[in-house]
Amino acid sequence: MTCPYLAYLREGDNKSFDHERPFCGATESFVSPMQADLCNDRFDFHHTTHCSIYQEYERNTELETPIDRMVSPIDE
Amino acid sequence: MAYTDYLNRDKLMLTVATTGGVHGKDANPNLPEQPEEIAEQVRECEKLGAAIVHVHGRSETGENNSARLQEVNDAIRERCDDIIIQNTTGGQAVLEERIKGIRTDPLPEMASLDMGPFNRDRHIITEHNRHNIDLLAEEMQSKGIKPELEVFNNGHLNEVYRLIETGLLDEPYYINIIFGGGTFSIPSPKNVLNLVQNLPDNSKFNLLATGPHQLPLTTMGMILGGHVRVGMEDNLYFRRGEPVKSNAQLVERAANIASNLDRELATPDEAREILGMK
Ligand code: SF4
Question: Which of A31, A60, B5, B205 could pair covalently with B10 via S-S, beta carbons 3.0-4.6 A apart?
C-alpha cells in the first residue's frame, strides 16, 4: 500500500513539469526519486517505518484532535 | 597513485555523472532525466573532455528505473563519439533491478560496484551485502566489464582489499573515493590524504565529493595524481546560491582546472589504456 499522502502531479509547490511526478501532500512538495521508493512501499520499504515525514505528520495530526491534546504526552 | 603521478603528468580521466538517482528536476530543472536530454548533455561534456559517463535510468515520472538504462545507453551511443559508458549497479533497489546495469545490449564497458551500504533518511541502502557484491563482481569479471569500486566511506576500503583477495578483480583496481554528508567519508583534505595513502597497490583512484566539496576536493584529487568525477548527480550548484545550468558547466570548470594544473585530459581511448581495458 502506498502512503496516503502521495499523489502524482504536474504542478505544485509553485513548480510545473511536462510529466506527473511524485508529490507529498504532507509537506506539499515534490519528493526525490529515492524518497518516492518509500512513498510507494517499494522493495523492503514501508512508509510507516521508514518515512520520518509521515511519522511526524501523523503525530502532529493526531495531536490536533481535542482528545489527543488533552492526553498529549508533551503536556505530561 | 600519488603526487608523483601528478609530477609525471599522468593524464586525467574526467567522469561526468549527469543524473544519478538522488535528485529530481524539482531540485534543479536543468537536471537531465530522460534518455534524449541525458544524451544531449553527455555529448556536450564529451566535447569538453569527459572520457567516462556514469549513467542512471529514470522513468517519465523522474523515479529510478534501471529498465531504462538500455534507452539511455542507446541514446548516448547515438549522439556521442566514443565516451565510455559506465552504468550504475547501485541505488536502493533489489539486486534483480540493479543487475540490469550489466545486462544491457551491448554491454557497458564499465559499471559501478558499491562496496557496501550507507544510510539515507531512516533507512539504509538495502541489499549491499557481500553476497551481492561478489555476485556482481563475478559477472562483471566474466563479461569483461571494468568495475569502478565505490568507496562511500573509509570502511569500504577494507571491502576492496577483501574483494582483491577473492580474485574477482583485475588490475589496475579502479577505486572511487567518496566524500560528503551522511555516512560518506567526512569531506576534508586530511581525510582525502588518509584514504589515498591507504589505497592498495596497483590501483588508480577517482575522487567524488558532493555539493560544495566537489570543487575543492576534486582539485585536490587532481594534485594527488587522481582522476575526478563531476556532474549534477553530485552537485546541483555551480557556486553558493547559483544553481548549475548544465553538466557541461561543471565539466568545463574541471577541465579548466586540470589544464591550469598542467594535467592533460585522457581521451576515452587513453582511459581504456589507463584502466587496462584494451
Ligand atoms: S514523503 Fe512520506 S509522508 Fe510524504 S508521501 Fe512520501 S511517505 Fe508519505
Answer: B5
